[in-house]
Each structure stands twice: as structure tokens, then as C-alpha cells.
């Protein structure tokens, strides 16, 4: 993703740079659990253009592709509105929450839940 490359300042265990500590945690979990993934790999959605999911992942057993979006600033109204629009764009293209779209959120003191991440990985990606 060419957008704001200078904001990619957190180095993952795989040696790539991501934008946030939470994305680093996610990337490191995928890497340690040997889940193939791409960070901010372009995806073209009809009527929405190109988006850059935080992670595109592959369930090696089923060969099914998943998209993981982490929304880390949900206490910011403008960010929240963009998040809702992005989720709607996925769904208009047949990529649904609970099916191939995995979502995690943070807002204020509601931090990333590591147990939830492990549960979502076990449910969808292993």
C-alpha cells in the first residue's frame, strides 16, 4: 500500500513494517502460528475501488482466503464512519463479517483482546 508509507514504523517478527502496535501483535501471531498472510495487499471491490485490507490470510487446510480488518481508533467519530463504510463495501461485494471478514476493534480503554484474537484464529484460520 503506497499510502503514508512513513507511518509504517513497527517491525514484525517477519521483518516487515506495519502501522500500529496492534497490527504488529496480529502479524506476529499469524507468523508464529504459520498462517500465510499479506499485509495491506490490494483488493478491488466493485463500486468501491481498491481497498487495502490490514491482512489477507489463507487457511492452509481449506485453502479459503480471509480478510482481517483491525479498527483501532473507534473513539474517533470520523475514523468510525470510515470503518462502517469500509465494512459495508466488503459486504456489498459478498465478503461478510463472520464468514470471510474478521473484524477486531479498539477504542479508548477497550484494548485489543488477545484471547479473542486466538479464538478467531482457531475458528477461521486453523
* Gyration radius, rounded: 14 Å
Q: Tell me, rounded to a whole number, the average pLDDT.
A: 94
Look at the helices and sheets and give the structural class.
alpha+beta
Taken from the alpha-carbon principal axes, the silhouette is globular
Task: Tell me the strand order in the biggest sheet.
Answer: 3-6-7-8
How big a fraction of the residues is strand?
Answer: 15-25%
Helix count?
3
Q: Name the poorly predicted regions.
A: none
Helical amount: 25-40%
The biggest beta sheet is recorded as: 4 strands, mixed
How many DSSP E strands?
8
Q: Give the distance, in angstroms, between the N- and C-terminal Cα atoms.
A: 27 Å
Succession of helices and strands: EEHEEEEEHEH
